[in-house]
Design goal:
This protein is mostly helical and 279 residues long. The protein has one domain (8-260). It has helices at 2-6, 17-37, 39-46, 54-60, 62-84, 94-114, 128-139, 142-158, 163-177, 194-214, 220-229, 240-255, 257-260. The longest helix has 23 residues, at 62-84. The radius of gyration is 19 Å and the shape is globular.
Length: 279
């Protein structure tokens, strides 16, 4: 009885996907658009935007903020604690752990070698110390997005469709969400081509989907997956890394076709321990 009393009273409904997307885009696009459309005013008030600017962190955390808002509204503090307990789900197959920890770095190395680049990113004059600092700073950026994309969007979509289609939709929304960064000077994306990046986001969302389900809705493994994508030690392999990842994702989807094209076994709960997502 004590456990039941601690569980959130209202499960998150599938319709919550729309407000999740709306809140996510409102936070990120709102902050970045201010700098795009009113650059002089924005700079005079808050300073030049950069990867270390507080607004950059806030914009990056848009999906996480949206996730916490929805979980708090429906489940309160108990719901938030249960939601965050998904960070402790560390068990997954050895194959997936190997792909995240070894396979992804090899993709960047191979892509860099193909374009005639180095095996590892060049160290700055100050040595390896600053690279390690950046590595841990990156842990507080992109991986935090996963609290929203895989924490909320993926399970809500998997209630209605097979994981392959859920992954494709999350990937498209994820890619489109990044669009303002391509028009904002001072960001890494401002020097990139959006089309390969968009394709890459879709590919990555599909690739992480079977890992997410294999790990029973873990937030830890998608965050580690994301961290590897922005690891400063891996060389710049753009755009060859994208095409290698497309090939890898095709193979992964084929090998996991039994679960990717069926809703059986797909994670559908945002808050563990509730009756969410029951068919």
């Amino acid at each position: 009885m004590a456990l039941l009393q601690r569980l959130p009273g209202r499960p998150i409904q599938s319709a919550a996907l729309l407000p999740f997307v709306a809140i996510t885009f409102a936070i990120t696009w709102g902050l970045i658009s201010f700098y795009i459309f009113f650059p002089k005013l924005a700079v005079s008030m808050f300073g030049e935007i950069s990867s270390s600017h507080p607004f950059f962190f806030l914009a990056t955390w848009g999906p996480a903020f949206a996730a916490f808002i929805l979980v708090a509204i429906c489940g309160g503090w108990a719901g938030i604690k249960l939601f965050l307990s998904r960070l402790l789900l560390w068990r997954c197959s050895l194959v997936w752990a190997t792909l995240v920890m070894i396979g992804l770095p090899l993709v960047f190395v191979a892509g860099s070698v193909i374009k005639g680049g180095p095996v590892l990113a060049p160290l700055p004059p100050e040595g390896v110390g600053p690279m390690i600092t950046v590595l841990f700073i990156m842990l507080s950026l992109g991986p935090i997005e996963e609290l929203g994309w895989r924490g909320v969007a993926q399970p809500l979509l998997q209630r209605q469709m097979a994981p392959i289609w859920a992954g494709l939709i999350v990937g498209m929304v994820w890619g489109l969400w990044h669009l303002p960064a391509f028009y904002l000077s001072g960001t890494v994306q401002s020097g990139w081509n959006f089309t390969p990046f968009f394709i890459g986001n879709i590919t990555l969302a599909v690739l992480v989907t079977p890992l997410f389900n294999n790990a029973r809705g873990s937030l830890l493994w998608p965050m580690l997956f994301h961290w590897q994508l922005i690891n400063p030690f891996w060389p710049d392999a753009e755009p060859h890394d994208t095409w290698i990842l497309v090939a890898v994702s095709v193979v992964v989807v084929w090998l996991n076709r039994a679960t990717m094209f069926s809703r059986d076994g797909a994670v559908t709960r945002v808050i563990p321990g509730t009756n969410e997502g029951r068919r």
